[in-house]
Design goal:
single chain, 73 residues, alpha+beta, Ubiquitin-like (UB roll), 5-stranded mixed beta sheet
Amino acid sequence: MIKVEFLGPIGKEPVEMEASTLADVSAKLKEDSTLLVWLDKCAVALNDNMVNDLNTVLKDGDRVSILPPVCGG
């Protein structure tokens, strides 16, 4: 089981799911229509390390963070 957390203005509670890779997580999150506006814009972190390869293998207890874009000065 992995945990997916949604940071910033996404406004969604964390969810737990079974997933073998980030591609599995992506596919499951795309089933939620409220997330579709965010997913293409967000960065992803796995256990606090930025990742961008959907083939990244996950293990039990991993934490995936969905990070919306930010701006600042």
